[in-house]
Amino acid sequence: MKTLLSFLAFVLLQVVQPANARDDVILKIEGEIASPKTFTDAEFRALPRATVQVKDRAGVQHTYEGVSLGHLLELAGVPLKQSLKHDAIAKYLHAQGRDGYVAVFALPEFDSQEYLIADAVDGKAIAADAGPLQIVSPAEMRRSRWVKQLVLLRIVRSQ
Ligand SMILES: Nc1nc2c(c(=O)[nH]1)N[C@H]1C(S)=C(S)[C@@H](COP(=O)(O)O)O[C@H]1N2
Ligand SMILES: [Mo]
Fold this sequence. Notes:
Elements: H1 2-16, E1 25-31, E2 37-40, H2 41-45, E3 50-55, E4 61-68, H3 69-75, E5 91-97, E6 102-106, E7 116-121, E8 124-125, E9 134-136, E10 150-157
Parallel strand pairs: 1-10
Antiparallel strand pairs: 1-2, 3-4, 4-7, 5-6, 5-10, 7-8, 7-9
Bound molecules: ligand MTE and molybdenum atom.
């Protein structure tokens, strides 16, 4: 009887216990790539870190911190820079937020721009309406490709 009760308590705990947030997948990379991957919060934070400085519309400088988008693509086997040639030129990045919002990046853009997947700004986590991950596209004043609540990166071939 005691064994049965403790077994039932164990089962109940598994059901009601909130999932460990650190084990949740926060970002997926898929599509026309050599190594599709998912990242938990802990895995994402273990990647090499990068920062970019960006001025807001009021001219105030902010420091965004996270992982280089180009570096993450390269980790997944996406050819960039010197490695980008031939039929890979027909590929592009589809970056999607939790709300379904999509922005597109052509791969040659990574030759000259440093995009960031930010998880923090000025030392604080990105606010919940835009985080936990947001694309930072420093040269873009209108910020249309600053995808908020980024959840999916997909490499698509246009041909
Ligand atoms: N997930 C998601 N990200 C998004 C959008 C959106 O609708 N959904 N809108 C984009 C557009 S068009 C703009 S102009 C900026 C606006 O956000 P901001 O005013 O906080 O810069 O967010 C961008 N990122
Ligand atoms: Mo916009």
